[in-house]
């Protein structure tokens, strides 16, 4: 075998009929080197298996349907949500949620966990959960249940019971969910923090609004008025300082991150505020926050009758004086950050207007006039309401008079003012989906459990492509020997049948 020139030129000569074969060996080696370089600097190897994780093989892989079960344990009852989620191949900021199916995949049972805690009825608590789990089983295939996470978040109601009773109920909840056949960890069931409730509602609202899939930096804030507390959440700058107890962070599947101010005002939910004001009324026989002509029992044991006067202006003055004067109240909170942009006003903002057959709107002045008109309507009161309250009914009914007055006062205290570009639109749905923290909880949990989209380690790529090169070199050597044998020629001395495997092995080790 005689060669002249450089190796890169691939110019070699041989004696005998095999010279064409050996001449072709050098270009083949150049192809092997090129293959190795491609492997070393390739940005990704889509079908490379690392650590036993094969993308798209199930669970949270792209293109597969996953399920997340969320229990919303409120003060009046517990509602289960079953969400179908799917992240499509090719990359997306957020998974798709089947919103068309979701209304049929919800069920609420009463009473709430706080009621079971007060009565220390752990067996009753378990039966309620098992009923909801049975319902969930109708929507989650048997083969998917071991991979389907189940989450339970209790809201303000359970915070108000003695801790020992609350812990006992949560212990039974955890025991029941551990035995459910679904994926569950003990810290997936507990009392939701105020900032978490607000942050998850923000995730749900902006998912439905399409914020995460667009290029716009604007997002939709959320003011959530519950029965026991009010949550205010909106996006802030990444470098903006905020109290740790009010800071919520969220990132999409592709790493787009958001920093949020999320504060909860416990005790300033609609129902709690109404009850507190009733107890602190300076006049024990008149209540300006109830409709004109509405009679109810008083707070004391004397059996006095309290008559509604339907005076909206006086009602709002009492709300500001007795409720919003506290240091942790809306508009007074020490670490409060001024509102900015547009907001969705949800939960009781919506339900009250729906019950009163009022249009949805964002004009505070209109809210005041509607409250004034509704409160002065004497047809809402009378002996029927008094009889209802005496028989143990809801002594806050009809609630719309106080509620509309409270809504207007609350939004003003928070700083909602359309003239300053800070508006609040009352709503329940966005693009056909309910703005509910449970949806946000399902999305956040799904993304947290999904394997990150990271590049395979360089070492793994190198090892992979070296293995490919070795296999191809061995294959080429075998084909070379077969072709020489077919031609009946003799191998040159340096490349003989006896030392061909040794030369190929040496070349492989060298590479």
Automatic annotation (TrEMBL):
ATP binds at residues 227-231. The chain crosses the membrane at residues 462-481. The keyword Oxidoreductase does not apply. CDD domains: ASKHA_NBD_GDA1_CD39_NTPase. InterPro entries: GDA1_CD39_NTPase. The active site is at residue 197. Belongs to the GDA1/CD39 NTPase family. This is Apyrase. The lineage of its organism: Eukaryota, Sar, Alveolata, Dinophyceae, Noctilucales.
